[in-house]
Amino acid sequence: MQKPWREVTLIAFDTETSGKYPLSSEICEIAAVKWRGGEVVETFETLIKPSKPMGAEVIAIHGITNEMVENAPSISQKIAEFHSFIQGAVVVAHHSPFDLGFVAHEFEKANLELPQDPALCSSLLSRKLFPESQNHRLQTLIKFFNLPQGTAHRALDDTKACLDVALRCLEKAGETLEHAFDAQGGMITWPRFSMRAIAERPAVRALMDGIRDQKRVSMVYASGSSPGAPRTVHPEGLVRSLDGDFLVAYDEKDQRSKRYYVDKITEANLID
Predict the structure, then answer these.
(1) Domain spanning 5-193 has what CATH number?
(2) Which residue, 74, 94, 98, 78, is CA-closest to 86?
(3) Which CATH architecture has domain 199-270?
(4) Strands of 119-121's sheet, edge to edge?
(5) pLDDT tens for residues 171-213?
(6) Measured between alpha carbons, how far is residue 64 from residues 32, 102, 139, 160, 168 in Å?
(7) pTM exceeding the 0.90 threshold for the entire prediction
């Protein structure tokens, strides 16, 4: 990736969702801005109607109500258009693993090939290149760089801010994409967030079924206070993470939600 980043098409994108995890939650808004040759040349924006009504807690975060998405298209009606929009570009998002996780899942559901171009994360870049910032939330960085402020947690305004932050970071990182990938700690690739790939393991398939169907699972975990002992959990979400894939589940014995790393889950079977 020795190519100068100024010669690359960059696409900043953002999703708003009905919850934290791709299998149990859905995209309710997606937007992107395409940057080429020093300027924004095209934008993409659409509300998405989830298959289930959104709860008050998540609505309070992004301000997208069930009434606002009532007549919006489904993700299946728009995902191919978004897939086409980002072809041949390096995408960038703030906390990109979150957004890539949701979008990669939708690509696979629609039988669309995962993009081959790597991705950038403006959060990781800013942490490395501008450690003096108070924190590295997008709204903090907007103030830090004295950028125009839009509506926080709405996808198009967040993409524009993300692009501006990313460009500041790229200018400081160096001339090439390789400099940028080094600054964020390595390449972030779309296949890393494939749910199909991780579902090849029978135990993971059972956990995914538990999440989708809201069923309990008997699981064996090779770590924690009772390594190797079966435990009954209510799976809440499965996350493909750069730091290690993990399951979030409510543990009946401990009566709280816990994080379990997927590579330590040796067995899982549906109960209900």
Answers:
(1) 3.30.420.10
(2) 78
(3) Roll (2.30)
(4) 39-47, 27-36, 10-17, 90-93, 119-121
(5) 999 999 999 999 999 999 999 999 999 999 999 999 999 999 9
(6) 17, 18, 18, 19, 30
(7) yes
